[in-house]
Amino acid sequence: MSDSVLVVDGLTVYRENHLAVQNVSFAVPAGTDAALVGPNGAGKSTLIQAVLGILPRQSGEVVVLGHSLSPKGDLPVAVRQHIAYLPQNFLFDRRIPITVSELVGLGWDRVGLQLPWVGRRARHHAVRQALAQVDAWHLREQLVSGLSGGETKRVLLAYCLVRPRRLLILDEAPAGLDARSESDFYQLLYQLKKEQGWAILQISHDLDMVRRSCDRVLCLNRTLRCQGVPGHALTPENLSLAYGSEFVRYHHSC
Amino acid sequence: MTIQAELTRMFELSQMPFMQRALMGGILTGLMGGLMGSFTILRQLSFFSDALGHSALLGISIGLLLGFDPSWVLLPFAVLFALGVTYFLERTRLWTDALLNIVYSSSLAVGIILLSFRDEYQGGIGHLLFGDILAVRTADLMFSGVLLLVCAGFIGLTLRSQILLTLNEPMAIARGVSVSAQRTTFIVLLSLMVGISIKAIGVLLISAFVVIPACAARLLSRKFSHYILISAGLGALSAVIGMTVSAFFDLPSGPSIVTVQLSIFLLVILAPKTQALVP
Q1: Is the pLDDT of residue A252 over 60?
Q2: A95 contacts in B (CB within 8 Å)?
Q3: pLDDT number for residue B279
Q4: Nearest to A97 among B168, B173, B222 (CB)
Q5: Taking CB atoms and an 8 Å limit, are B218 and A113 in contact across chains?
Q6: Concatenated DSSP letters for B167-203?
Q7: A209, A223 in Cβ contact below 8 A?
Q8: Minimal C-alpha gap between A43 and chain B (Å)
């Protein structure tokens, strides 16, 4: 546990008086890709948002890189700088004028007081590298509002990659990517994990992918129903606990 | 000959200290309105700025009734009013535009009733509604100048947090942006900007300074950073042209500036090149 980038202990979250996540504990060590699986409405996005301090939690402790998330959901900015988060739906007002390189540049800047022109060269260099990594450098001058769903995902991934991080939290990141981009995407995650020791926590609905590429799996259905190495943890019994028995019968008959 | 006489009159007018103060006041309000307006319209607070403007009449009438100089009551009133309305909007589950309508029409009603107790202001209501840019004092200019510096400093130094917050709130929180602190600071600055500009522009037209240049700038910009600068620039440009037109044709200053803002906006909408940028 000592080298864990993220430790969650006894996390309980209510959403509008309804118990969404109950007493969940797990850890994600450095260089590990952990998948969070479970049916719709199981509390996966809620869990992730409570871990990031976006949603308030009822009880439990969240520790990121040795720093506890305060009861109000605050973490030191220096710790936040090591975390990248990609929401499930990047909802934004399409009338906002912003180009791809400006958006990716926002991922590079440290939150806090800063003159807008400071670090221009370093930012430009980092943006160029990040966009090249997701094969989107050619989109740099385009308006974000004009991108397709897959392009938006790639650009948001560049926003995450534009600075070295320690923890990457993805809410169904590959949704909307075509087969080729999806394969590139998992290849990139593998590299970040192996070469740079990033810890990854990702919500996924693709159990085959989880078996193939993730090191750990967490099955959630309000409470944590199973966790461990995917090959061992994703047994029909555990899946039926998380998804219900109907799902497992269907999945196995395919 | 007539044109020459007009130009001579304009030149003489431009030498007058009150005219120079008015022009300076217009430019400062234009810059501030454009700067704050760029974020105000994207955060869908345009109607909020309108409500702030209307409610200023209530602040002025409270000041008059209590026997204070309205200028001193107006600014604290504007800030407290803005914070109160924000709290009210967050606590009530009704439509924001409907709630703001309640706020501004009722504060206008109460303000007018309070004013009716002061007979000497019956005639001066036109000044409150449409402002009197020619009455701007040096102290007003200095206060506007300081406020412009504070607004520019705030937007400039927290630019990335402001953009991220405007774009996607969960992503901003995940990066450590303190949403409530940034929001509150912005609202306080916006209310101060509206409060300080009421004297020159009046309660009815001040929101035009916040909304129209920003909308025109949006149609002209692809980049966020350019958008903010263009918005502030169009605000100042409208003020200069508007003041000139007002002096030349002897028209009311505030409405002239707003008409120039509208003309620029229409030009931008009708110009074929920018059509492609309209979503």
Answers
A1: no
A2: 42, 218, 279
A3: 44
A4: B222
A5: no
A6: H-HHHHHHTT--HHHHHHHHHHHHHHHHHHHHHHH-T
A7: no
A8: 17
Q: With the C-alpha atoms ordered A87, A35, A38, A4, is the resulting torsion angle positive or negative?
A: negative
Residue in A81, A113, A143 closest to B158 by CB:
A113
Beta-carbon contacts of B272 under 8 Å, excluding residues fewer than 6 positions away, are: none
Q: What was the pLDDT predicted at A50?
A: 96
Q: What pLDDT digit, counting tens, does each position of B185-238 carry?
A: 999 999 999 999 988 888 889 999 999 999 999 999 999 999 999 999 999 999
CATH fold for the domain made of B2-8+16-277: ABC transporter involved in vitamin B12 uptake, BtuC (1.10.3470)
> Domain ranges in chain B?
2-8+16-277
Residue type, B204: L
Interchain pair B222, A116: CB under 8 A = no
What residues in A contact B223, CB-CB < 8 Å? 97-99, 102
Interchain contact, B170 vs A49, CB within 8 Å: yes
Task: Please report how the helices B46-66 and B70-91 are oriented relative to each other, as an axis angle in degrees rounded to 10.
Answer: 140
- Cα distance from A110 to chain B (closest Cα, Å)? 8
CA distances to A65, A83, A84, A215 from A165, rounded to whole Å, are 11, 6, 7, 19
pLDDT range class, residue A107, cuts 50, 70, 90 = very high
Q: What ipTM did this prediction achieve? A: 0.89
Q: What is the DSSP letter of A70?
A: P
- Our CA-based measurement puts residue A79 at a distance from the nearest CA of chain B, in whole angstroms, of 9
Per the listing, tokens 């000044």 go with B127
Distances (CA, A) of B108 to B52, B55, B57, B60, B235: 11, 6, 6, 11, 27
Instruction: Kindly state the average pLDDT of the residues A113-136.
Output: 91
Instruction: Give the number of other Cβ atoms within 10 Å of residue A176's Cβ.
Output: 17
C-alpha distance from A243 to closest chain B C-alpha (Å): 28
Task: Tell me which range, A63-72, B9-18, B117-126, is most confidently predicted by mean pLDDT.
Answer: A63-72
Which residues of B are less than 8 Å from A81 in CB distance?
A: 175-176
Please compute the mean of the pLDDT values over residues B49-67 and round it to a whole number.
Answer: 88
Residue ranges per structural domain of chain A: 4-82+165-253, 93-163
Cα B163 to Cα A105, B43, B168, distances in angstroms? 11, 10, 9
CA distances from A171 to A43, A88, A165 (A): 12, 5, 17
The CATH number, out of the four listed (3.40.50.970, 1.20.1250.20, 3.40.50.300, 3.40.50.150), of the domain defined by the range A4-82+165-253: 3.40.50.300
Average pLDDT over residues A170-199: 85
